[in-house]
């Protein structure tokens, strides 16, 4: 399993913080950091091949379940205490319909594929 585990959802009801009243909180598996933090310190980590393989495993798991991530970027690749990878942040995830999925309207520009930024581009460029 290369997808972050969700343990629970809670509704905030705290008299000391009425501004949060009714907010939903998601309780997730605890990560130690992100690939973004690793790449900030070392743009070419020795563990890159293993990390990439685990990211691919997570994408395979997600696609096999009929979904696409929609916003894959280093900040959404979490690293666990045992150095394993978990994909996270599924706000932009979309369900596959055959071989296609609805493309999210908002994604992180630096990590958005060109075919989504410029739909008039075809396989010729």
Automatic annotation (TrEMBL):
PROSITE patterns: PROTEIN_KINASE_DOM
Domain Protein kinase, first and last residues per copy: 1-125
Entries under Pfam families matching the protein: Pkinase (PF00069)
GO molecular function terms attached to this record: ATP binding; protein serine/threonine kinase activity
A GO cellular component annotation in the UniProt record: cytoplasm
Signal peptide annotation: none
Gene3D superfamilies registered for this protein in UniProt: Transferase(Phosphotransferase) domain 1 (1.10.510.10)
Database matches in InterPro entries: Kinase-like_dom_sf, Prot_kinase_dom, Ser_Thr_kinase
PANTHER family: MITOGEN-ACTIVATED KINASE KINASE KINASE
Protein name, entry field: Protein kinase domain-containing protein
